[in-house]
Amino acid sequence: MPPIIARLFSLLFTCSLLFSCASNKDVLYLQDIEDYSNSSSNSNNQIRFKKNDEILINISSSDNKSAMPFNLPLVAGSGSLQVQALPTLQTYLVGENGTIQFPILGEISVIGLTKQELRRNIYGKIKKYVKDPIIHIRITNFNISILGEVRKPGMYSVPNERVSVIDALSLAGDMSIYGKRKELLIVRENQNSKKEYYKIDLTSSAIFNSDSYYLQQNDILIVNPNNAQVQSSVFNRNTPIYVSIASLLLSMLTIFSIR
What we know:
- The protein is α+β, with helices and mostly antiparallel strands.
- The chain has 3 domains: 3-22 and 231-258, no CATH class; 24-45 and 142-225, Outer membrane lipoprotein wza fold like (Roll), CATH 3.10.560; 54-139, wza like fold, CATH 3.30.1950.
- The chain is 27% helix and 20% strand.
- The protein has helices at residues 3-18, 24-27, 64-67, 115-126, 165-171, 227-232, 239-258; strands spanning 54-60, 74-75, 88-89, 92-93, 99-102, 106-109, 134-139, 143-148, 154-157, 184-189, 195-200, 220-223.
- The strands form 4 sheets. It has a 5-stranded mixed β-sheet, with helices on one face.
- Strand 10 and strand 11 (195-200) form a beta hairpin.
- Helix 1 (3-18) runs antiparallel to helix 7 (239-258).
- It is elongated, with a radius of gyration of 28 Å.
- The two termini are 13 Å apart.
- The mean pLDDT is 82.
């Protein structure tokens, strides 16, 4: 075999290794789902209030006149001249000291509390003023960020305050084929403004029992590229085209050498 043909064969073999297909173990989700057992629970992963949360708190009652002083004033909604938005309730911003300023009741500490705990706290303070108060609480700036090997990276707003890792990936159009499914990274800030880090393996059904399966407000979900994508980053995007051309030239040279 002529030396040039041998070198071309070597080039094609090297390129075929670079562009070889990944195995099922690197790509498929929940590979052990048939063995899944709901032996534990992530029910303790409740949403707790953090600094800079914007909280909507609405007090209602059969006697709305008595409940009215405990609500913030309505603010005018924004809209075009043709369509005027309805007035909306103002929200409470959790300050650096972890408190909000509540009408009549004054300063209330909310940081680290769940919605149920805050509801009981407010109920105990206003029940002597309001008959059978109904307290509605919601975080209005519940956002998550999704970065890396997904089809639509960005920040997403979650109105119902409940989003799993799989829900988040669905919002972002799913992972690309180049995403590292065994090492998704979650970056979370706790109530003390300290960063916490969690890793998620989407190939294992154990994620359903993980405390980090459900995301919290302001979580960052990072999908890192797999090894093939990292290695391909040093090559020109046109490398597959060059490989095809080299293959064609090799075929032609082989034919001419035989003749």
